[in-house]
Amino acid sequence: MSIAIVANPSAGRGRGRKVAESVANVLRDRNQDFELFLTEGPKHAVELAYQASRKHEIVAALGGDGTINEVLSGIWETESKLAIIPGGTGNDYARGLDIPRDPLAALDLIQNGRAVKVDVVKETDRMFGVVSTIGFPSTVLVNVNAHRDSWLKGSPVFLASVAKTIRELESYRVKITLDHKEIDTKVVGVVLMNMPYGGGGLKFAPDARYNDGLISVVIIKEVGKFELMRALPTVYFGKHVNHPKVEILQGKKVRIEAEQPLIKSFDGDLAGTTPLEAEIYPEKAEVIVGV
User: Fold this and answer.
1) Which among 83, 76, 73 has a CA at the least distance from the CA of 1?
2) Model's pTM, two decimal places?
3) Residue 234, φ and ψ in degrees, nearest 5
4) What domain range includes position 228?
5) Which of 128, 130, 114 is nearest to 288 (CA)?
6) Residue of 232, 199, 198 lying closest to 215 (CA atoms)
7) Are residues 54 and 160 in the same domain?
């Protein structure tokens, strides 16, 4: 068994390089056949992963959900299996696949775990394995990115970005086509899920499964600022599903059109604007998980 590790040295607020070096040292001590690749910028992991898939049975992504998304994008149409060494701040891939957040524990799993087939969702501009959003959740990411060079880091940045987004909350008229069903409504956001968790532990779609062949569509209808603020903490526990302004549907194909261009996100990265058009490809990739 040969392993390629595609590592983002900037992941986890700069801890990625040190984690990659530690993992490489452990693999050398174990006489494991491996190769380490370090990314140098956005989309580089896609290219590195594809190249690595030509020589290695397993291509491991070391970094946050954005890095994992890029590695998956590079190998999902190859014979290589994806492995995950969490090194970011959100870690929703690891959460959804029950992969240890500790890098060395995740490494043990790569060497001793099993492969499972997972669904992949392809969209016009990108693909994703966990979550895609428009509206409120995407605006939060825009505000998080605006703090990239700020002294404020981590959870405080996320909370400040949520607060700013709520203060400036907007609603949007959208038409959602889910398979053959059409929904015309006003929303503050729409979240497409392939696993239960997104946004760093928010349980948007409690019933979503990585191999159920369905996209879970979480529609957050027009709601007031204070009502949204009160409801947000319940999402961590999946208790929002009974809220009157939340509707969760499932299907294989989704198209979302909006009266104005809305920014899209894919596994935590922003890319393109509406329309959003996604289709699920059942059991299209293989991922190493626990026994």
Assistant:
1) 83
2) 0.93
3) -70, -20
4) 127-283
5) 114
6) 198
7) no
